[in-house]
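Customer escalation, tier 2.

The customer says the design service returned an amino acid string that "doesn't look like it belongs to this structure." They asked us to rerun it and document both sides in this ticket. The original C-alpha cells are below, unchanged.
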C-alpha cells in the first residue's frame, strides 16, 4: 500500500512537471528527461522510446482498471512532450499529439477523478 501511494505521488509529480513544461513551452533538461524515462521504465516496464511505437489501445487495456488511470495519464503527457520536441517529422509529431490527447480524454472520461488541469490541457491541445 505504501509503495502504491509512493508511485502515485511520483507519477503525479512527473505529470505536473511535464504539463508545466508544455504549458510554458520550455524545454526539459536532458538530465530531467533521463530521470523521467527511468521512472517511466519502472512504472510501464518499458522506456519512453518504446512508448513511441506502442498502440494506445493496448496501453489502455494494459493499464485500465484497479485505479491505474494515473499510468495512462503519464503515458499521455510523455507522448505530448515527445510531440512537442519532435520538429523534423510533422507526421510523427501529429501522431504523438493525437495519441496523447486521446489518452487524456480516456482518463478524463473513465478515470476515478476529475481534473480541471487535465480538462484545460485537452481544450488547449484541441484548439491548436
Amino acid at each position: 500500500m505504501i509503495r502504491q501511494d509512493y508511485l502515485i505521488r511520483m507519477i503525479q509529480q512527473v505529470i505536473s512537471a511535464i504539463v508545466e513544461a508544455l504549458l510554458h513551452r520550455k524545454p526539459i533538461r536532458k538530465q530531467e528527461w533521463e530521470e523521467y524515462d527511468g521512472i517511466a521504465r519502472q512504472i510501464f516496464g518499458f522506456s519512453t522510446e518504446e512508448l513511441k511505437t506502442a498502440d494506445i489501445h493496448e496501453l489502455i487495456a494494459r493499464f485500465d482498471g484497479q485505479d491505474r488511470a494515473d499510468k495512462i495519464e503519464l503515458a499521455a503527457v510523455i507522448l505530448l512532450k515527445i510531440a512537442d520536441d519532435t520538429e523534423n517529422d510533422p507526421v510523427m509529431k501529429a501522431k504523438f499529439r493525437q495519441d496523447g490527447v486521446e489518452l487524456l480524454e480516456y482518463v478524463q472520461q473513465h478515470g476515478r477523478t476529475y481534473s480541471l488541469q487535465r480538462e484545460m490541457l485537452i481544450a488547449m491541445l484541441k484548439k491548436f
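Tier 2 assessment: The sequence is consistent with the input. Residues 2-23 form the longest helix (22 residues). The mean pLDDT is 86. Sent an explanation to the customer and offered a walkthrough call.
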